[in-house]
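Wed. Picked up where I left off yesterday with Right-handed parallel beta-helix repeat-containing protein. The coffee machine is broken again, so keeping this brief.
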Amino acid sequence: MRPGVDAARVSPRPASDYTSSGPAADTSRDGPAISTSPSSRAKRPAAICGSKSLRGPATPPPGARRITPSEDLQAAVEGSRPGTTFWLAPGRHGLGDDEFDQVGPKDGQSFVGAPGAVVDGRHVNRYAFGGDGADVTIKHLTVENFVSPRNEGVVNHDSGDGWRIKRNTIQHNDGAGVFLGDGNVVAHNCLAHNGQYGFSAFEPDGVRDVVLKRNEVMGNNTDDWEQREPGCGCTGGGKFWDTRGALVLANWIHHNHGVGLWADTNNTEFLVRGNHISHNAAEGMIYETSYNARIVHNTFVRNGLAEGPDCDCFPLSALYVSESGSDPRAGTRYARALTVAHNRFVDNWSGIMAWENADRFAGSPANTSTGFTTLVNPDVATEQACSNPNLIGTAPYVDDCRWKTQHLRVRDNVFRFHPSRLGAECVPSAGCGWMGLFSNVGSSPEWSPYQGEVVEDNITFEQDNTWADNRYEGPWRFIVHDMGNAVDWRTWRGAPFRQDKGSTLR
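Structure written out below (tokens, as returned):
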């Protein structure tokens, strides 16, 4: 969650010490090299929504069972063997008149839509496809007008394992368009204008090894849940919760009514590569109380312009890293550093905010991830132990009860910022044009061992967080150590902070 009203606005000091030099080389092994020139244009990806790539076969695939709009699809499923393929003919396919009428596939069954095949919830049914069937395939269908409740999903409602959801249009539904289960692949879909999320990943025991690739995730959170339930943290293009081994690759995530991409609570071994994240009302991406990630070769364009001017806390950023860092105890992949590298940031409300709430730890009243503790020592640093005033100040609890922003590497990125392109509201006092590494003064609960400047000092000087070899264009300003400490380029780079070695600002 974003910090609350205790986060004061910053008062900028004038920037100085502008320097320039050549671009840093792109040495990442996570994808092809991209231009790191500040003048390179952020091109819009090719649209998935409405494209010919979504059109299915005009005739049934070999061996497929043909289903007309007048037939009972669920009855056909029940009367068929596992592994059967169903070809849905053109037209609108309804699922019955009860709110719980839905399709419950058997293992290995496939559902392929002809051009014009629509599974229509008619604003009656909650779910389109659910149940515990594994290795199900959904392709070339339009799924719309379902009324899934908040925090529930329409396609793969029960988070079945091994589902393949490809080249569908999933739109105009309540709740989440798609739920992700273990081993799911969600690729080349249009996930648009759903009430809460385009997609969501949650299971009580966590979600493992999901792939979200080349989707267009557009215009979601039409029900504006953050306004209906302030602080719910339940809005945007899509959300991951307690997910290990997610691959988020080459998606176009744009114009969502809230955050574009949100990973919240105990996600780890997370790769976000080659995505175009643009024009989302709030942050382009949040990585929160999570671990071990690579956020590389992405483009962030004009995020936060809708909510940024109204933010009464601190600068609303394109990328918000909140209580997140690397730790080998949380997984072997990306365990040495949480890397943010080779990305382009173009005219967002602000850049990167790396933050750690001094009052947030497992067992604390300020911890909004109720029922969860950290991944680093979960059998010992339990939520109950971490809320014990007699234990929290002692080893190992004082370290292992906290989610920490640590071992963060922000390197080889391009940050372009032109206030004149963001409108008259883009002024420093409104949180526009900032980069930050900071915390707040610890104040609660009264038994917390993190009172005062303990966490401010740790995130700034002790937890191995570094910016380096970046290229800046525009009047950037910096917040470091504490929320009121606005510094210029020279101070950000000099002692004692020593950030952005090898970087340039033009």
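Quick read: The first strand starts at residue 65 and ends at 67.
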